[in-house]
UniProtKB/TrEMBL annotation:
Pfam families named in the record: Muramidase
Domain N-acetylmuramidase: 43-206
Protein name (Swiss-Prot/TrEMBL): N-acetylmuramidase domain-containing protein
InterPro entries: Muramidase
Organism: Methylobacterium gnaphalii
Length: 299
């Protein structure tokens, strides 16, 4: 699983969630789709419906939607009471209760509980819910947010892994939009005509020539297979499922392989030696010898 440096999330938070924000390249989309057996049109459909086609907002932050009902189920006791009193948490999902910018809400939620706040927002090109961090290939929800801020390529990687973990690849390939919508958006998908929107965006992209690409081309960063899920992926609007214990950022490693790697000392890199400068007059003497050996004949 992808693990960010221990202070990476703190630094990203201090930077206002503005990371490298690298946009995807033309061939990233067909390459990602190939890994789940579909073309770029199917991937475009999900991306368009979830984020309007971009993984970052105008401030170069990863697109993010804070979900108060998810925050509610990730809190308890005094923290939940405080969040409810501030309007940051409520028990059941409410339609249309989203501000234009969710980052102020996220900032308030982070002040209450950092991990719960990251779990309770949807991120990036395909709006992956933080609760699905493990199925998307990350060791913690904070690590997932750090990756989302880095690049749309990382967002695509997480999307492919989650499609595999949810078992939606075959449905996506068969264009079974109702099943894709249910898996990605939850059982209430029909209220927003989510399946119809997916079908419409797929039809739009199907009419446009695909980016030239073939599986024989080298993919710079191959996307690994999804790990075995620690729990079922959680679409927006579903009942709370048990959440695995978090892996502490910067905590001690317990994996024997990782521990062995930690003991490996870096190989010292020799200091490069600059090439010796030619002796004074050397080139001049060589030129004179060539002139004598090969005199220019006058016509």
């Amino acid at each position: 699983m992808a693990t960010a440096p221990a202070d990476a999330f703190a630094r990203l938070r201090a930077a206002g969630f503005v990371g490298a924000a690298i946009k995807m390249q033309d061939q990233d989309l067909p390459a990602a789709g190939h890994l789940v057996g579909v073309g770029e049109d199917e991937m475009h459909a999900i991306i368009d419906v979830e984020s309007g086609g971009s993984g970052f907002d105008k401030l170069r932050r990863p697109k993010q939607l804070f979900e108060p009902h998810v925050f509610y189920r990730n809190l308890s006791g005094e923290k939940r009471t405080r969040a409810v009193s501030l309007g940051l948490a409520y028990e059941k999902w409410k339609p249309g209760n989203y501000p234009t910018d969710s980052y102020p809400r996220l900032a308030q939620a982070l002040a209450i509980d950092e991990r719960a706040a990251c779990l309770s927002a949807s991120w990036g090109l395909t709006q992956i819910l933080g609760e699905n961090y493990a199925q998307s290939g990350f060791a913690s929800p904070q690590d997932m947010v750090v990756a989302m801020a880095a690049s749309e390529g990382a967002q695509l990687t997480a999307t492919v892994m989650l499609i595999k973990a949810m078992g939606l690849a075959a449905n996506l390939k068969a264009h079974e939009w109702k099943l894709v919508a249910r898996g990605w958006n939850g059982p209430s998908y029909a209220k927003n005509a989510y399946d119809d929107k997916l079908a419409a965006r797929f039809a739009h992209w199907k009419a446009i020539p695909d980016t030239p690409w073939s599986p024989d081309q080298v993919v710079a960063q191959p996307i690994p297979a999804a790990p075995l899920p620690a729990r079922d992926p959680v679409p927006i609007g579903t009942a709370k499922l048990p959440i695995p214990e978090p892996i502490p950022l910067g905590g001690a490693r317990t994996d024997p392989t990782a521990a062995a790697i930690d003991k490996i000392q870096p190989v010292p890199v020799p200091t490069p030696v600059a090439p010796a400068e030619p002796k004074p007059g050397l080139l001049a003497r060589m030129a004179e010898r060539l002139r004598i050996a090969f005199p220019i004949k006058k016509v």
